[in-house]
Design goal:
The protein is an alpha+beta fold. The chain contains one helix and four strands; from the N terminus they run E-E-E-E-H. Strand 3 and strand 4 (36-39) form a beta hairpin.
């Protein structure tokens, strides 16, 4: 099964949270309410520098994805 790069998620146990799930490597879930990120991968210490740069880009893309999806509801 193929998944889109980003998915939106919510849960009634977290009524104020909006989750964006990144389904490609490195997989993560970001809570846009407070910008908490949960990585779904294990990383080596040597990956930290590359991950820091890539994470910033991916988190920006996740926020842009959310904004795009919300704007489509308004149309």
């Amino acid at each position: 099964m193929e998944f889109p790069k980003f998915l939106l998620g919510d849960n009634t146990d977290f009524p104020d949270a909006i989750f964006v799930i990144h389904t490609e490597y490195p997989r993560f879930i970001i809570n846009l309410e407070n910008d908490d990120v949960e990585w779904l991968e294990d990383f080596d210490k040597s990956d930290e520098k590359e991950l820091a740069t890539e994470a910033e880009i991916l988190i920006t893309q996740a926020s842009e994805f959310y904004d795009r999806e919300v704007s489509r509801y308004d149309d």
